[in-house]
Amino acid sequence: MTNFKVGDKVKIIGNSACSCNNVGDIGIITDTSEVLSKVKVALDLKGNWSCNVDLELITDDVPIGYRGLPKNMNLKTGDVVKGIEKYYTIKNESVGDFSIENCGGAYTLVSRAITDDNPWTLLTDKYTVSGYTNDIAYFDGVGVAYRKKAPVVRTIEVFIHTEGVRIGVKATVVTKDDVIDWSTLKVKENK
């Protein structure tokens, strides 16, 4: 049996105490004893008691699609949440004009920040992607996620004019979003 403490994030996995909490809910422990813990979920103002055997400690981030208070989602800069009608990208520990800690109301976690571990972000009908070209992941012909295209090193042929003679030589260049970054041009040595 896990000894829970106030502030622990837990998932309700059973309901042997006939709690008002639903199986599958995720919440924060606000009071605890050896047998029971009071768990506050989403928009619940006071919390409800559940048996400790019906609780599972959550040590990592909540899953995409989780609906609840932003302060319970372990949000980071770049994560995207959806309110009633609007999508918000988390910046400076804020959801729009409100700090994560003071943001009331339920939000749905739409995507996590793009990192080396998670380069994909879910596409939504109201959330647009701009500023760069993207790889799009499709399911049944519909785009469902996007990620930035990684820079690509390409080999090209460049021509050098020397003493009135045009000579073709191999070179490499980096492209970002299919646009050549000419500052990366490197001519290969002829051998």
Characterization of this structure:
The protein has no helices and 17 strands. By secondary structure, it is mostly beta strands. The radius of gyration is 26 Å and the shape is elongated.
List key phrases describing it.
5-stranded antiparallel beta sheet; mainly beta; 4-stranded antiparallel beta sheet; single chain; elongated; 3 domains; 191 residues
Gap from first CA to last CA: 70 Å
Strand ordering within the main sheet: 4-3-2-1-5
* Global morphology: elongated
Any idea what the radius of gyration is? 26 Å
Roughly what percent helix?
under 10%
Low-confidence stretches: none
Overall domain count: 3
In short:
With 191 residues, this protein is mainly β.
Q: What does the secondary structure layout of this molecule look like, with pairings?
A:
Blueprint: E1 9-12, E2 26-32, E3 36-41, E4 48-51, E5 55-57, E6 67-68, E7 80-82, E8 87-89, E9 94-95, E10 98-99, E11 107-111, E12 121-122, E13 134-139, E14 142-148, E15 152-162, E16 165-176, E17 179-187
Antiparallel strand pairs: 1-2, 1-5, 2-3, 3-4, 6-11, 7-8, 7-11, 9-10, 12-14, 13-14, 15-16, 16-17
